[in-house]
Protein: Diacylglycerol kinase
Organism: Glycine max
Amino acid sequence: MGDGNYDMREFCIPDYILVPGSEVKSVSHVPACPVIAFINTKSGGQLGGELLVSYSTLLNKNQVFDLGKNAPDKVLQKLYATLETLKHNGDNFAAEIQNRLRIIVAGGDGTASWLLGVVSDLKLPQPPPIATVPLGTGNNLPFAFGWGKKNPTTDLQSVVSFLNHVKGAREMKIDSWHIIMRIKAPKEGSCDPIAPLDLPHAMHAFNRVSSTDKLNLKGYHTYRGGFWNYFSMGMDAQVSYAFHSERKLHPEKFKNQLYNQSTYLKLGCTQGWFFGSLFQSASRNIAQLAKVKIMKKGHWEDLHIPRSIKSIVCLNLPSFSGGLNPWGTPNRRKSIYRDLTLPYVDDGLFEVVGFRDAWHGLVLLAPKGHGTRLAQTSRIRFEFHKGAADCTFMRIDGEPWKQPLPKDDDTVVVEISHHGQVSMLATPLCRSKSVNDPSSPSVDREEDDSSEEELSEDWEERRKFGAAETFKYPEGIDIAQVS
């Protein structure tokens, strides 16, 4: 089993556990870190396909699944049914496999979220912790837990090295966030306001809400989903949507992470987000589109959104848009920040951040750059104004979609609330901070002493990029493409 040059005994699971009905064998060695690997072969250009070959060479091929061919919920249901049956029959080896099992998922942030959603939904006994291989463009989830953000090399030696990191990784809980979207059913025309294919995997995790679900309301279409990294709306989601649409049309061009990142930046330019106030109608401003409410001490309160904000991000992890941290480190000596806690990933709160335009987003590339901090909360609600615009753009964990907005008396409401926790695997390079673990990396090391007054409306006039020696574009970006 596996390649002769590597000792894979610590990671391999025998067939009788993976293939229902196989002959039960007595096993002498209990693997320290049995794994199931899910690989999105469409991610990372040809890298996904190469990883599938390497993992299948090193491990039992029945431990390795191509997500294009195998639905992860079916795989895990079958595996856990077999494990429970074997345990019931007194198989201690099966019990040990279940205790020690770890999941590896290779793909973009959307793929990783899909797996997290499946593990949450299946309510498995002892849900296995998850390690992520960065195969996408942004790779925020892997970056936040120390797995890097560059697409990996796929040779056997690199995979063995990754497996050893998985064996040594520690478990870390993170909050899961439930998102529900209610759309008033149109009186005529199509029954489904969004083609299900256009919704991200994370909204498919719960699928269309069944008629027996108590969250369903008569006369409305209801969609549910989950996220672990972020939900965003507006400018950044529109650029992401343009990128995904372009990639669907010309997949052959998007085989290189650097090319993907520079295309992303170019789309931000061509869509006018860099000079928002000059060219855009106010309908792109969040305050014009929606009323935003947050839960405070058991009551809904209106959240003031400055009129210049064109993008709003609800952030669970300290990583967004390729590893940047839009929340930054608020100086809690300032009265405006006194009530804020550190951004923990397991405290039942997420951070709400706004951006004025794409230049404001690029502020994050400076060492102490951050967005406009708006709130920390456990629940948020967006109520869209009728007639403000035909549609807006939304994004969950790297997957964007175009959302039609109400005409006349239709209503679109999006609400986010806490929905339990899942287990991630973290390396010593993990950037996420746990409320339960004082040894996790401290964001407290330096207070942000930037003098920028957060909610000021005239930021547009005061930005001076050339003066910041510390500011630099991402590696490999041609400045001529940006200007």
